[in-house]
Specification:
The complex is a heterotrimer.
Chain A (H helix, E strand, L loop, with lengths): L14 H33 L16 H30 L6 E8 L2 E5 L5 E3 L1 E5 L3 E8 L4 E5 L4 E5 L5 E6 L4 E7 L12 E6 L1 H9 L7 H11 L24 E3 L5 E3 L2 H9 L22 H13 L3 H7 L1
Parallel strand pairs in A: 1-5, 4-10
Antiparallel strand pairs in A: 1-2, 2-3, 5-8, 6-7, 6-9, 9-10, 11-12
Helix pairs in contact in A: 1-2, 4-6
Chain B lengths: L10 H4 L10 H5 L4 H29 L10 H36 L8 H23 L13 H5 L4 H28 L12 H33 L12 H35 L6 H14 L15 H29 L8 H24 L1 H7 L3 H31 L5 H28 L13 H31 L48
Helix pairs in contact in B: 3-4, 3-5, 3-16, 4-5, 4-7, 4-8, 4-9, 4-14, 5-7, 7-8, 8-9, 8-10, 9-11, 9-12, 9-14, 10-11, 11-12, 12-14, 12-15, 14-15, 15-16
Chain C lengths: L1 H6 L7 H36 L1 H9 L3 H27 L2 H31 L2 E2 L3 E2 L9 H34 L9 H26 L4
Antiparallel strand pairs in C: 1-2
The chains are: A alpha+beta, B mainly alpha, C mainly alpha.
C-alpha cells in the first residue's frame, strides 16, 4: 500500500471503476445542487440584508411551476441514481458462472479461509488476477462482514447460513481486508490482507507448502467417517435419498413444496434433518448439530457438489 | 442592526409569571405546568448531552494515533456505545420535542396547557428513570454492543451490562410515547378559536408528524428490546441462530423503529427552522402547504425505508432495490423543504441575529447531510461505504449539523420567552461561528475516510488514515469549546441578562403575544386567530 | 353549572372538550398497543412460516378446551363491560357497580384459567429457557413456538392485570359517586381499553390454538 495521503481508494477489481464512476457522478450532481443552495443563501443574505429596523419587504409571488420543478427535477435525477446503483448491485449479487470458490468462516476475531484445493489460510487470502472468485461465507458466532475497500465489495457474514460475495481482481498487490460489522472487543483487529497475484505466481504459491487434501477429498472422508454412506446409497436404494446430482436440483418435499438444493438447504439438512423431508422418505436421519465444525460442513458440501449425476455430466461437458 | 429591544420598564419584570409564581424544589418536582416541565427536560437533556459529548471527546482523542492513544479496544467499544445510546435516546430524540415542544405547543396554539399535564410530568419521570438505568449500566462497567444492539452479539456473546441499558431504553421509550400522545391530542382538540390546521405554525406541523412516529414506531422498538432481553435471560432463541432464531429479523424490527427515529430527530429541527427563517427575514414562508405536507410525507414514507440499513445484511436483492427507490422517494420532501427555505430568503429583510446564523448554518449542513444520503441510497455505492466513516459523517451532518444547530437556534430564539432575559448577541454570534467551523472540520474529513474504506467502530486503524483522523480530532476540540460557550452565557443571562420584552424579535406567533416569561396560564384571555401563520407586513412591488 | 366547572381541568374550556381529549388519548394509546403486539405477531408469523412443522406440533400440545372456555369468559366480560358503560351513561350507579364487579370477576376467572394452563406447561416440561424437555420425539424448533406462546399470552395477561387495576379504580370512583350521566369519560375510556385487550385475545386464540390442521 502506498503510505501517506490520498483522496480515493485504490481500484483493484472489475467492479471498482463502476462504483467510482457512479460515486463521481453523484458527487457532481449533488455537489452542483448543494453549491447552488449555498450560493443562493449567501447572495440573498447579503443582498437582502436588513437595512433599517422598520423595513418592510416586497410581496413575493409563489409560482406553482417553481414548486413543481423542484419536486420533479430532483426526483428525475434520483431515478437515474437509483437505476445506476441497482445495476451495480445486480452485478454484485450475481457471480459469473464457473467462478472459483473459496470458503470463508468468520469467528471472533479471525477469518479462516480454505481453497478448493485444500490450502488453508488465516486472515489472508491469495487470489489470482483476472479470475472470478466467489466466497461462500458463514460465521461461527456473531455477525461479521467481509469488506475489501480496494474491490468495493462488502457482505455481512451470518451465523447459521451462507452468504456470498464475488469479485474479479485486476491489479496485483496487497489490499486491506476489514471486518465491517461490529463483532465485539477486537473487532478492529479482525482484518488482514488480500494478496492478488499473477496466475502463474498464484499456481506456484498454491503448490508450495503442505499438500493437504482438497476440500472435496476432506468432505468425502467426513462423509464416510460420519457413516453417511450407510443410508445415502448412490443408487437410491438406501433408506435415504441419493445425493448424486443433488446440488442445484429441485427437491420435492413431503407436503408438496419444492426447494432448490443450494448450500443453505444442504447445511440445514445436516443440522436439522427433520425441517424439510424429501417426498417418499421418512424422518430417520439424526441431527449432526454440534458434531461437525463449520469448516467440516463446508467440506461435506464441497463433496456433495462434486457428485454430479451422469446425465448432467454429459450435458455439461 | 439588531432587532433586539430591551424593555426597560421595571414593571415588565415584576409581573407574576410561571417562574416566580412558586419557589422551592417541590414546586418544580411536582409541577404540572408544561413550561416548567420543559425546563426540567432542558436541564436533564443538557446533562446527557455533555456526558455523551465527553465520551465523544475521549474517542476523538484516542483516535489521534493509528494504534489508539488512550484506552483498550474493549473500553473504546464501550465509549462509542455510551455515546450512541445517550445521544440518540436521551438527547436527540427528546431534545426539541420535549423541551421546545413542551414549552411551545400549548402557547403556539393558544392553549393553557397540554391536554394531560400529569401525564406530561409522568413522562419526565419515566425519562429520568430510563436515564438512571442507562447510567447504572455505564457506571457498573459499561455496555459494548453499539447503540444498535445487533444480535446475536447483544443477546448471547457480549459480557457487558446489556440488560440494564436495554431496560433504560425500553423505559425511556414510554416517555416518548406519552409525550407524543399528549401532543397529538392537544393539537387536535385544543387549538384556539380560528386557528385552523392550515393556519398552524410549521413547528406545530413538524411536532405533529414527529408525534405520529413516536406513537407508531416506539412500541416496535419496545417489543424488540424485550425480546433481546428475554433471549439473553432465558435463551429462548428468537434472534440467535444457534437457538433457532434469525438475526436478520432483529435488524428488520430494530430499523423499523430506528429509521423513523432518524426523522424524529430531524423533523422538529425542520419545524424550528421554518420559524427562524420567517422571523428573521420578515417573510411569510414560501410554499406553506408544501412545507407542512412534506413533514407528514417524511413521517409516513419514513416507515417504509428501514431496509436501506441492510443492503449488505444478506436480505434479498429485490428487497434491496425496493428499499433503495423508496429511500429516494423520502428524499424528495426534504429537498422541497430546503428549496422553500431558500426561496423564503428571496427579497426578505434578513437580519443577522444569532438564531438566524444557526438557521443559515442549519440549511448548509443539512443540505450536505442530505446529498450524501443520495450516495447511501444508491445500492452500488452503498455496498462500498456501508458501515464506514462515510455513514458516520452523513448522519452526524443530519443529527448534529441539522438537529443540534436547529435546537440551539431554537433555544436562542425562544430564550427571551423562556427566561425573560436576553443573552449577549456578540458572544452568541461568535459561538455559532465556532460551532459551524468546528463541526465541518470534525466531520468533513470523515466522508473521505469512509470513501477510502475506514470501517466504523474501529479502536485502531491503518496508518494511512491518520492525517484525516487528526484533522477530525482537531475539529472536535473546536466543536467542544463551541458548545461550552452558550452554556456559559445562558447561565449568566439568567441573572445578569437585560430584561426581554414580550416580543424582542418582532415575531408573529401566539407565543409572542403574551408577556416574557409567560404567566402560568399562558394567556390572560384565550386569543382568537384571524390571520395565517407568518403574516408579516408586506408592501406591493412598485411598478417599474 | 358549577358542578361541571369543578369537573373540568384548568387546561380545558369545557367538559365536552375534556371528554373528547380523553377519548382521543385512549385511541392514540391503543394505536401504540397495536404496534407493540404487531411486532410480536410479525415475529410469530415469520417463524411459523419458516418452522411450520414445529409450530404445528407445538400448537397440538395446547389445551384447546381451556383456551375455548377462556375465550368465552373474555367475551362475556366484554359484554358486562359494555353494560357498565351503558349504565354509566344512564346514571344508574347500582347497575354500574354490579357490572364492574362482574367484569372484574370474569377477568380474574380468565387469569385463573390461564394460570392453570401455565401450570400444565410447567408440569409437561414445556417452558423454554427454564425446563424444556417434552416427552417423545419433537421437532427441533418447537421450543421457539413455546417461547412465542409464553411471550404473547404473558404480555396479554399483563395487560389484563393492568385492566383489572383500572377497573378497581373506576369501581372506587363509582362508589364515591364521582360519575354522573354527563360526566363519566373515565368509564368509557377504561371500557375502550378493556375491549382492546379482549380483541388481542381474539387474535391470539386462533393463531396459537386453532390454526395448524387440528
Amino acid at each position: 500500500m502506498q503510505p501517506g495521503f490520498s483522496l480515493s481508494p485504490e481500484q483493484a477489481s472489475t467492479i471498482a471503476p463502476h462504483v467510482d464512476h457512479l460515486f463521481y457522478f453523484l458527487t457532481g450532481v449533488t455537489g452542483f445542487f448543494a453549491i447552488l443552495v449555498f450560493m443562493l443563501i449567501f447572495v440573498f443574505a447579503i443582498k437582502y440584508r436588513r437595512r433599517s429596523e422598520d423595513e418592510i419587504p416586497v410581496k413575493v409571488h409563489e409560482p406553482m411551476a417553481l414548486e413543481t420543478a423542484w419536486i420533479g427535477i430532483p426526483f428525475g435525477l434520483m431515478l437515474i441514481m437509483f437505476g445506476w446503483g441497482a445495476w451495480i448491485y445486480y452485478q454484485d449479487y450475481n457471480p459469473p458462472a464457473g467462478a472459483f470458490e473459496v470458503f470463508v468462516v468468520g469467528k471472533q476475531w479471525m477469518w479462516k479461509l480454505q481453497h478448493p484445493e485444500g490450502k488453508r489460510e488465516i486472515n489472508e487470502l491469495h487470489v489470482p488476477i483476472g479470475v472470478p472468485i466467489k466466497l461462500v461465507m458463514t460465521s461461527q458466532d456473531v455477525i461479521h462482514d467481509f469488506f475489501i475497500p480496494a474491490f468495493r465489495v462488502k457482505q455481512d457474514v451470518l451465523p447459521g447460513r451462507y452468504t456470498e460475495l464475488w469479485f474479479k481482481a485486476t491489479k496485483p498487490g496487497r489490499y486491506h481486508l476489514f471486518c465491517a460489522q461490529y463483532c465485539g472487543t477486537d473487532h478492529a483487529h479482525m482484518g488482514g490482507w488480500i494478496v492478488v497475484m499473477e496466475p502463474r505466481e498464484y499456481q506456484r504459491w498454491l503448490s508450495g507448502g503442505e499438500a493437504g487434501e482438497t476440500m472435496e477429498q476432506a468432505g468425502r472422508r467426513l462423509f464416510q467417517q460420519y457413516a453417511c454412506t450407510s443410508c445415502h446409497f448412490e443408487d437410491n436404494t438406501g433408506r435415504c435419498p441419493s445425493l448424486r446430482g443433488l446440488y442445484h436440483s429441485q427437491v420435492k418435499l413431503v407436503g408438496g413444496q419444492t426447494v432448490t438444493a443450494d448450500e443453505n438447504y444442504i447445511r440445514e439438512s445436516i443440522l436439522d434433518p427433520n425441517a424439510k423431508i424429501v417426498a417418499g422418505y421418512s424422518p430417520v436421519m439424526p441431527t449432526f448439530k454440534g458434531q461437525i465444525s463449520e469448516e467440516g460442513i463446508l467440506q461435506i458440501i464441497a463433496y456433495i457438489k462434486s457428485l454430479k449425476s451422469p446425465e448432467r455430466m454429459s450435458a455439461g461437458k | 442592526m439588531s432587532s433586539l429591544t430591551v424593555d426597560e420598564a421595571p414593571q415588565a419584570a415584576s409581573h407574576v409569571h410561571y417562574l416566580n409564581v412558586k419557589f422551592g424544589v417541590k414546586s418544580w418536582l411536582f409541577t404540572t405546568d408544561h413550561k416548567r416541565i420543559a425546563l426540567l427536560y432542558l436541564a436533564s437533556i443538557t446533562f446527557f448531552f455533555f456526558v455523551g459529548g465527553a465520551a465523544a471527546v475521549l474517542m476523538r482523542l484516542h483516535l489521534l494515533t493509528p494504534g489508539g492513544l488512550l484506552v483498550e479496544p474493549a473500553t473504546y467499544n464501550k465509549l462509542f456505545t455510551v455515546h450512541g445510546i445517550l445521544m440518540v435516546f436521551f438527547f436527540l430524540i427528546p431534545a426539541i420535542p420535549a423541551v421546545l415542544g413542551n414549552f411551545l405547543v400549548p402557547m403556539m396554539i393558544g392553549a393553557r396547557d397540554l391536554a394531560f399535564p400529569k401525564l406530561n410530568l409522568l413522562s419526565w419521570y419515566v425519562y429520568i428513570l430510563g436515564g438512571l438505568f442507562t447510567l447504572y449500566a455505564v457506571v457498573a462497567g459499561g455496555v459494548d454492543t453499539g447503540w444498535t444492539f445487533y444480535t446475536p452479539y447483544s443477546s448471547t456473546y457480549s459480557n457487558s451490562h446489556v440488560i440494564a441499558a436495554a431496560l433504560g431504553i425500553f423505559i425511556t421509550g414510554f416517555s416518548s410515547i406519552l409525550t407524543g400522545l399528549n401532543f397529538i391530542v392537544t393539537i387536535h382538540k385544543m387549538r384556539a378559536p380560528g386557528l385552523t390546521w392550515f393556519r398552524l405554525p410549521l413547528f406545530i406541523w413538524a411536532i405533529y408528524a414527529t408525534s405520529i412516529i413516536f406513537i407508531l414506531g416506539t412500541p416496535v422498538l419496545a417489543i424488540t428490546i424485550v425480546l433481546v432481553a428475554l433471549e439473553r435471560l432465558f435463551h429462548i432463541g428468537v434472534f440467535d441462530p444457534a437457538l433457532g432464531g434469525d438475526p436478520i429479523l432483529f435488524q428488520h424490527m430494530f430499523w423499523f423503529y430506528s429509521h423513523p427515529a432518524v426523522y424524529i430527530m430531524i423533523l422538529p429541527g425542520m419545524g424550528v427552522e421554518s420559524e427562524l427563517i420567517t422571523c428573521f427575514s420578515r417573510k411569510k414562508i414560501f410554499g406553506y402547504k408544501f412545507v407542512a405536507m412534506s413533514s407528514l410525507g417524511i413521517a409516513l414514507l419514513g416507515f417504509l425505508v428501514w431496509g436501506h440499513h441492510m443492503f449488505v445484511s444478506g436480505q434479498s436483492m429485490y428487497a434491496g432495490m425496493v428499499f433503495s427507490i423508496l429511500s429516494y422517494l423520502v428524499a424528495v420532501p426534504s429537498a422541497v423543504k430546503v428549496f422553500n427555505w431558500t426561496a423564503t430568503l428571496y427579497k426578505g429583510s434578513i437580519s443577522y441575529d444569532a438564531p438566524m446564523l444557526y438557521a443559515l448554518g442549519f440549511i448548509g449542513l443539512f443540505t450536505m447531510g442530505g446529498v450524501t444520503g443520495m450516495f447511501l441510497a444508491s445500492l452500488g455505492v452503498n455496498v462500498h461505504v456501508h458501515d464506514t466513516y462515510f455513514v458516520i459523517a452523513h448522519f452526524h451532518y443530519i443529527m448534529v449539523g441539522g438537529m443540534v444547530m436547529a435546537y440551539l437556534g431554537g433555544i436562542h430564539f425562544w430564550w427571551p420567552k423562556i427566561s425573560g432575559r436576553m443573552y449577549p448577541q456578540g458572544w452568541a454570534r461568535f459561538a455559532a461561528l465556532v460551532i459551524f467551523v468546528g463541526f465541518n472540520l470534525t466531520f468533513f474529513p470523515q466522508y473521505i475516510l469512509g470513501f477510502l474504506g475506514m470501517p466504523r467502530r474501529y479502536a485502531v486503524y491503518p496508518a494511512e488514515f491518520q492525517v484525516l483522523n487528526v484533522m477530525s480530532s482537531a475539529g472536535a476540540s473546536i466543536l467542544g469549546v463551541g458548545y461550552l460557550i452558550p452554556l456559559i452565557y445562558f447561565i449568566w443571562s439568567m441573572r445578569y441578562g437585560p430584561v426581554a420584552s414580550a416580543n424582542p424579535w418582532n415575531a408573529k406567533g401566539l407565543e409572542w403575544q403574551t408577556p416574557s416569561p409567560p404567566p402560568t396560564e399562558n394567556f390572560e384571555e384565550i386569543p382568537v386567530v384571524t390571520e395565517e401563520a407568518y403574516d408579516y407586513p408586506v408592501r406591493e412591488a412598485q411598478v417599474a | 353549572m358549577p358542578e361541571e366547572l369543578a369537573a373540568t381541568a384548568h387546561q380545558f374550556e369545557d367538559l365536552a372538550q375534556q371528554h373528547e381529549a380523553d377519548e382521543l388519548g385512549m385511541w392514540v394509546f391503543l394505536g401504540t398497543e397495536v404496534m407493540f403486539f404487531g411486532g410480536l405477531f410479525l415475529g410469530y408469523t415469520v417463524y411459523r412460516h419458516v418452522y411450520f412443522g414445529a409450530f404445528e406440533a407445538g400448537s397440538h400440545l395446547l389445551d384447546l378446551l381451556l383456551g375455548a372456555v377462556n375465550t368465552s369468559v373474555l367475551i362475556a366480560s366484554s359484554f358486562t363491560m359494555a353494560l357498565s358503560v351503558y349504565a354509566a351513561q344512564k346514571g344508574r350507579k347500582k347497575t354500574l357497580i354490579t357490572c364492574l364487579i362482574l367484569t372484574m370477576i370474569l377477568g380474574s376467572v380468565f387469569l385463573g384459567i390461564k394460570g392453570v394452563e401455565y401450570g400444565q406447561k410447567f408440569h409437561h416440561h414445556l417452558v423454554p429457557g427454564y425446563d424444556f424437555n417434552p416427552e417423545g420425539n419433537f421437532p427441533a424448533h418447537m421450543s421457539l413456538y413455546f417461547s412465542f406462546y409464553f411471550i404473547m399470552t404473558g404480555m396479554h395477561a399483563l395487560h389484563m392485570i393492568v385492566g383489572e387495576g383500572l377497573l378497581l379504580v373506576v369501581l372506587i370512583l363509582a362508589a364515591k359517586n364521582r360519575f354522573t350521566a354527563a360526566h363519566h369519560a373515565t368509564v368509557e375510556v377504561v371500557g375502550i381499553y378493556w375491549h382492546f385487550v379482549d380483541i388481542i385475545w381474539i387474535f391470539l386464540f386462533p393463531l396459537l390454538y386453532l390454526i395448524g390442521g387440528r
